[in-house]
Structure formats: structure tokens, C-alpha cells
Design brief:
Structural class of chain B: mainly beta
Helix content of chain A: under 10%
Largest sheet of chain A: 6 strands, mixed
Number of strands of chain B: 11
Number of strands of chain A: 12
Structural class of chain A: mainly beta
Strand content of chain A: over 45%
Number of helices of chain B: 0
Distance between the termini of chain B: 33 Å
Number of helices of chain A: 0
Oligomer: heterodimer
Order of helices and strands of chain A: EEEEEEEEEEEE
Shape of chain B: globular
Radius of gyration of chain B: 13 Å
Helix content of chain B: under 10%
Chain lengths: 118, 115
């Protein structure tokens, strides 16, 4: 069975601070996908990034960066110089990756609420 | 369409009534997923389709829940004889699968309240 653990329930930071959201996963699949989604106060779920299990290269997109470490089953998300607009609940998710490059159902963590204040 | 569209956005129903929730996926997306999200929790898988075929319905809580996608596009999630515990946000997502980009894009959700 797949499992995603986001141990941090809530994090509060002051604007411009860096913050890292932790994600630890469990799976018996040899190939899988990892995702991060953002849920702002308006309630929608916004896709941020997908990582393939066979590609451990870290990724940076503007102020966002992701650190995937297969050895520790972790896929952490760092926001550099946080802004008030980053305030949201962030979900880490995992899915099985089939041989055709298809993802099956997503297993979500319970989310981390990030509050960025001035 | 440009994004995943769900209707209605809000639904209040009396206990015991049947409800039908609709999802219109992104045009050309093969896979369609239904999730349920309780307050303060992550989305929980219900079922998903590739084209019109239901691939996995292991997350449906009981036989009052059913879903269909008869023409491989629009999908309907039906809850019969609703109960108060069915109150939640129901989310639909679609992805380009198979063989394409596997990330799922979510609609705005339907907030179901059973009174």
C-alpha cells in the first residue's frame, strides 16, 4: 500500500524567510510519480510539479525548489524568500507509474498549512 | 474546455435524496478521477476512468456510490440515499494519460451538504 506523510501540520514564517515542507512516502512500486499541489484559501487544487522515480535530478522553478531523495524516500519542497501569496495548504502526493508512462490514482498526504505574514 | 469544470459548485440536499455530480474534463484528457476531500484532510481517491472504462473503483465507500463516463468525456458521480456523513468536497481531475503527461488537473469541486 502507498502512504504519504507530511509531518508538519502548520508552519508560520515571516515574509522573505525560506521554508521547507517535508514529504516522506512509502511504496512497494519500483516506478512511481511524486507530485506537489497547492491549495490556496480560495480552495482550488493547483498542480505545482511532478517528479519521476527514475529521475533524481532536483528542480528549481523561480523561488520554488524540490529535493527528491530516493534513499530516504523523501520529496521536500523549499520556498525561498517566501511571500504572503505563498500562504496555502500544500499537499504531497504519490502515484504508481505504469510502463506506458501512465499514472494511476493519487495518494495524498494530509497537507501542510503555510502561513506567511508581513 | 480550458479547465476541468464541475457542477453544481454547491449542493444542499436532504438526507435520503439522490444526488448527481457532474464533471467535464479538459478536452482530450484520457483519464478522469473522482476524489473526496473532508475539511482539513487531503483528497481521498474514489474512482477513475481511462476513456469510458472504469479502471479502479476501490475507493467508493459503499454501493450507494457509483460513477459513469459513458462516452469517455463527461462523468457523473451519483450518490443514492444520501447520508450526513456524505457531506464533503467532491473533486474531479483529469490527466492526459496514458503515455502523456500523467499529472492531474483538478476542477473547483462540488461542496455537498446533506442536511
Amino acid at each position: 500500500a502507498q502512504k504519504v506523510t507530511q509531518a508538519q501540520t502548520e508552519i508560520s514564517v515571516v515574509e522573505k524567510e525560506d521554508v521547507t515542507l517535508d514529504c516522506v512516502y512509502e511504496t512497494r512500486d519500483t516506478t512511481y510519480y511524486l507530485f506537489w499541489y497547492k491549495q490556496p484559501p480560495s480552495g482550488e487544487l493547483v498542480f505545482l510539479i511532478r517528479r519521476n522515480s527514475f529521475d533524481e535530478q532536483n528542480e528549481i522553478s523561480g523561488r520554488y525548489s524540490w529535493n527528491f531523495q530516493k534513499s530516504t524516500s523523501s520529496f521536500n519542497f523549499t520556498i525561498t524568500a517566501s511571500q504572503v501569496v505563498d500562504s496555502a495548504v500544500y499537499f504531497c502526493a504519490l502515484s504508481e507509474a505504469w510502463i506506458t508512462g501512465t499514472a494511476s490514482k493519487l495518494t495524498f498526504g494530509t497537507g501542510t498549512r503555510l502561513q506567511v505574514t508581513l | 474546455g480550458a479547465g476541468v469544470s464541475q457542477s453544481p459548485r454547491y449542493k444542499v440536499t436532504k438526507r435520503g435524496q439522490d444526488v448527481a455530480l457532474r464533471c467535464d474534463p479538459i478536452s482530450g484528457h484520457v483519464s478522469l478521477y473522482w476524489y473526496r476531500q473532508a475539511l482539513g484532510q487531503g483528497p481521498e481517491f474514489l474512482t477513475y476512468f481511462n476513456y469510458e472504462a472504469q479502471q479502479d473503483k476501490s475507493g467508493l465507500p459503499n454501493d450507494r456510490f457509483s460513477a459513469e463516463r459513458p462516452e469517455g468525456s463527461i462523468s457523473t458521480l451519483t450518490i443514492q440515499r444520501t447520508e450526513q456523513r456524505d457531506s464533503a468536497m467532491y473533486r474531479c481531475a483529469s490527466s492526459l494519460n496514458p503515455g502523456g503527461k500523467p499529472e492531474a488537473f483538478f476542477g473547483q469541486g462540488t461542496r455537498l451538504t446533506v442536511v
